[in-house]
Amino acid sequence: MAYKFDFGAIVPHWELLLNGVVLTTELTVVGSVIGVSLGVLGAWARASRAPVISQIVGVYVELIRNTPFLVQLFFIFFGLPALGVKLTEFQAAVLAMVINLGAYSTEIIRAGILAIPQGQIEAAQSLAMNRVQIFRYVVILPALKKIWPALSSQIVIVMLGSSVCSQIAAEELTFAANYIQAMNFRAFEVYFIVTGVYLVMSILLRWMLKVFGNFLFERRNHV
Amino acid sequence: MSEFTLWDIVYNLALAARWTVLLSLTAFVLGGGVGLLLLMARTAGNPWAMRLVRGYVELFQGTPLLMQLFIVFFGLPLIGIDVSPWVAAMLGLTLFTSAFLTEIWRGCVESIGFGQWEASASLGMNFRQQMRYIILPQALRIAVPPTVGFSVQVVKGTAVASIIGFVELTKAGTMITNATYAPFTVYGCVAVFYFLICYPLSLYARHLEGKLRHVAR
């Protein structure tokens, strides 16, 4: 049995793939901006000495980190409507990514906050800064700088993980691939090319996060 | 139409959870074996082997697990090998696991001081002996906590195998939902099952990490 590969069969569908790339990018950007913000809040709550809030955040982190993203997504998209919360595919996908990344980044950023020398915080206190000021001016940037590589990896993992959002018919890159292979039956060729696209996207994303990190942290060195 | 009680849901999910556990174990053990071979190739000092393994790791860490499973599932039949969802899932997850474990273990091997390599070389040991008697026993100690930690990722990764039609916990959840129209309860239970499998592993990894830090001090 000789199978003839026909990668040309994908070419007419380039627009679908492009739309998929755009939607995957949108999901990743929105998901990681909100997700990391949630992580900063969560890490603050974890590091603060308010026991109840810290414990609640701890439970959230453990629940999310010990269940698969796909199940979280199904729970949000299929399960929440039972409680009257109806979401579109895109909203459900973003919400799942935010909740997922929020938990991971809480744990990552917390490690960064714990690595800030206590003397820095005491120095800020002696300057009569309040807790919000200390967090904003003394703690958060050096903390983020310390854990930026780990956080970047996690964002790339979330971008790659978004491929399962095709299962709730969010029309991202994998959905486009499924759709194309259903039309031309060239499953292997489509998935092969789309895998390559994901690889390029993850390399680009990693590079952009590195550049963004340099911009965010280096510029303030002289302050 | 038969009535599904909560007990029926839990019972059927428990049956399916066996497949999640079996798939995780298989992928973890086989992936560990392949990962060890790749680690040898990576650290033996042949620049081509090194580049090849680095590319392999980059490929599997830079693409979605779902795509890897799709390529195995749809690609192997093209070269005349018919694969069931079980074989495809096992193979895909094994490759995925091996790439991550190689990378984790490489870090552990590289953290062993270079003096150890030199000292064992000066005793006339070849690469295999150095690895077997000097490097691996020391690297193993640091490698255990992150390896146990990664096993959680493998268990969660098996959920993606449901998409190529392998009936494990998540797929069973979808099937039961289609019969009961109670997605909130069913997916809630599915999540609880995963949590029960993964959380002990997470705790154990953290415990080992703490112990190691204690020893290091």
TrEMBL record, chain A:
The keyword Cell membrane applies. It comes from the Bacteria. GO terms for biological process: amino acid transport. One of its GO terms (cellular component) is ATP-binding cassette (ABC) transporter complex. The chain crosses the membrane at residues 20-45, 66-84, 147-170, 190-209. It is found in: Cell inner membrane; Cell membrane. This is Polar amino acid ABC transporter permease. It comes from Thalassospira alkalitolerans.
From TrEMBL, chain B:
Pfam families: BPD_transp_1. It is a multi-pass membrane protein. SUPFAM superfamilies: MetI-like (SSF161098). GO terms for cellular component: ATP-binding cassette (ABC) transporter complex. Its main location: membrane. Keywords: Cell membrane, Membrane, Transmembrane, Transmembrane helix, Transport. GO terms for molecular function: transmembrane transporter activity. GO terms for biological process: amino acid transport. It is found in: Cell inner membrane; Cell membrane. It comes from the Bacteria. The keyword Transmembrane applies. Residues 17-205 form the ABC transmembrane type-1 domain. The chain crosses the membrane at residues 20-41, 62-80, 86-105, 184-204. PANTHER family: BLR6398 PROTEIN, MEMBRANE COMPONENT OF AMINO ACID ABC TRANSPORTER. NCBIfam families: HEQRo_perm_3TM. Belongs to the binding-protein-dependent transport system permease family. HisMQ subfamily. This is Amino acid ABC transporter permease.
